[in-house]
From TrEMBL:
It comes from the Eukaryota. Residues 328-360 are annotated as: Disordered. Residues 9-61, 62-116 form the HTH myb-type domain. This is Uncharacterized protein. GO terms for biological process: cell morphogenesis; regulation of cutin biosynthetic process. Residues 9-61, 62-112 form the Myb-like domain. CDD domains: SANT. GO terms for molecular function: DNA binding. One of its GO terms (cellular component) is nucleus. It is found in: Nucleus. InterPro entries: Homeodomain-like_sf, Myb_dom, Myb_TF_plants, SANT/Myb. SUPFAM superfamilies: Homeodomain-like (SSF46689).
Length: 384
DNA sequence: AATGAGCACAACCGCCCTTGG
DNA sequence: TCCAAGGGCGGTTGTGCTCAT
């Protein structure tokens, strides 16, 4: 479309940043904030284009960036979120505190993608590569359900990512003294986060939010423990790690009021409106219904989904599924190639007698673990 | 020791979306 | 409503390092 370049490239330096340049950029931003990126290089005395400065800052110099090896938990998160979101690195990054989208993308491309491929799992679809052979009507139906789930979660994550961005902006404005800090009375208002809309926010969690300027990590997707679960009343928190969703599909009023109650965050509602979720309740409802189906795997026996009933996901499935095969592979240095065949078989690629149901089961576990992850993810917002 | 392949990661490029005039 | 600027995002490239030969 012939957009003019973000800056005049003549005379501007490219390539690796020197420590001196880093220092200049850091010092300038610490003192003035970044303001307009385009104007920044001149003000900071850098022979760089504004975009380059922005990238250097966001991907490397920002103080809240964690560098170094990815933990197993982080690997798991990336794999699972990638299965759900695809190459939407920024959305994935919102669930990995202190990691940048660029870092995650690089790590995926250089490590995880290869590992998946090595194990005979298509890194794009996250299914065994011989999956095509397994297709049957039932499985296609299930795939459709999973696709709906993914769409819904994807939309939710988009909203969440946007809110994270907003909170970043707000935080930054505060740090520059542009907006007053939250008052003591309002500090119990949680940061804008989809958790407010999607989950019953644990009041304690909400109140524990330290606010901008305190602990910069803000919980967004807050897990609450089911109090009326008959079987788990006496279970310790870890054992009763059930994620409780709000049955928001019953009415838009329900959702709207929930948003008001939990955070009075009109922006959040706007986001949902923008995403067309509030006004497409049939979509939401049916998708949640599928969601529930996929989790309970009672695909054929469902009645009308009860909007009053929160549905719950058991976290134990986190231990299962393809992802853990991958992770185990990485932990134990198991011979992945030879095992991959086995794993693939066990995961549904095999030609055993009930491979179809195995596949079904593993698929269920896999997606359940993904959904668990997404819904229970701390999703801290890297402020700034 | 030299060298080439493979790997890891920082940085760049170009497209797209948002925003404000 | 249109348009341009700013910024975000995902894909790709460049560069330096490690290791095997």
């Amino acid at each position: 479309m012939g957009r003019s370049p973000c800056c005049d490239k003549v005379g501007l330096k490219k390539g690796p940043w020197t420590p001196e340049e880093d220092q200049k950029l850091l010092a300038y931003i610490e003192e003035h904030g970044h303001g307009s990126w385009r104007a920044l290089p001149a003000k900071a005395g850098l022979q760089r284009c504004g975009k380059s400065c922005r990238l250097r800052w966001t991907n490397y110099l920002r103080p809240d960036i964690k560098r170094g090896k990815f933990s197993l938990q982080e690997e798991q998160t990336i794999i699972q979120l990638h299965a759900l979101l695809g190459n939407r690195w920024s959305a994935i990054a919102t669930h990995l505190p202190k990691r940048t989208d660029n870092e995650i993308k690089n790590y995926w491309n250089t490590h995880l993608k290869k590992r998946l491929a090595k194990m005979g799992i298509d890194p794009v679809t996250h299914k065994p590569k011989n999956d095509a052979l397994l297709s049957s009507d039932g499985q296609n139906k299930n795939s459709a359900n999973l696709s709906h789930m993914a769409q819904w979660e994807s939309a939710r994550l988009e909203a969440e990512a946007r809110l994270v961005r907003e909170s970043k902006l707000r935080s930054h404005s505060f740090q520059l003294g542009l907006i007053p800090p939250p008052s003591a009375s309002s500090s119990s208002v949680p940061p804008p986060a989809s958790a407010s809309a999607q989950f019953i926010v644990n009041k304690t969690s909400a109140n524990n939010w330290t606010g901008i300027g305190g602990d910069l990590e803000s919980p967004t997707s807050t897990v609450t423990f089911s109090e009326n679960n008959n079987n788990n009343n006496s279970a310790p928190p870890m054992m009763m790690s059930m994620i409780e969703f709000v049955g928001s599909s019953g009415s838009s009023d329900h959702q709207a009021s929930l948003i008001k109650e939990e955070g009075e965050n009109n922006n959040l509602q706007k986001d949902w409106n923008k995403l067309g979720l509030e006004n497409s309740l049939s979509f939401t409802s049916s998708t949640l219904h599928h969601h529930d189906m996929a989790i309970s795997m009672e695909a054929a026996a469902e009645g009308p989904w009860n909007p009053d009933e929160s549905f719950r996901v058991n976290n134990s499935t986190m231990e299962e599924g393809f992802t853990n095969l991958l992770l185990n592979d990485s932990i134990g240095d198991r011979p992945s190639l030879s095992d991959s065949g086995k794993d693939s078989e066990n995961s549904g690629g095999g030609d055993g007698g009930d491979s179809g149901s195995d596949y079904y089961q593993d698929n269920k576990n896999y997606w359940n673990s993904i959904l668990n992850l997404v819904n229970s993810s701390p999703s801290t917002s890297p402020m700034f």
